[in-house]
Amino acid sequence: MTSKFLLASDFDQTLSFNDSGVVLSELIGFHSFHDKVKGLADINLVQQGAELSYLILHDPDFRRVRLEHLVETGRRIRLKHDVALFARVLDNLGEEHKFNFNVISAAPQEIVQSALEGIVPPDHIFGTRFRYNERRAK
């Protein structure tokens, strides 16, 4: 009989060394990300971890962020050692034990998918999802 397990992991600072908000901020040339996050925490406006998604939607300094910035940010994320090996080991434990490895994050889903491309299937990654205005994206 096969034992099935669900394994869920956070992304930022669990599978990665960096906070994706810091990497995105550097990419767009904004250098006060930690100050913005502290301000949001001080007024209890956003739950910890969801600051980047809030800033992308509501802060004028982040309005210039586009889909390509999110994908590039994911490419620049430094993953912790052996994340790929860990995912492969979970996949190959044999028929007796099956692990369904999922990543759950408040970070934008595009960042996490880009960072974990080839390691975790996109349908096993759950992050903040944005809707895009296709007319404006062209």
Can you tag this structure with a few keywords?
138 residues; single chain; 41% helix; 7 helices; alpha/beta
Explain what you see.
It is a single chain. The protein has 138 residues and is α/β, with parallel strands linked by helices. It contains seven helices and three strands, in the order E-H-H-H-H-H-E-H-E-H. It starts with a strand and ends with a helix.
What is the overall silhouette?
Answer: elongated
Fraction of residues in H or I helices: 40-55%
Order of strands across the main sheet: 1-2-3
- The averaged pLDDT comes out at 91
Hey, roughly how much beta strand do the residues contain? 15-25%
Structural class: alpha/beta
Number of strands: 3
Largest sheet: 3 strands, parallel
Distance between the termini: 52 Å
Number of helices: 7
State Rg: 17 Å
* Low-pLDDT sequence parts: none
SSE pattern = EHHHHHEHEH
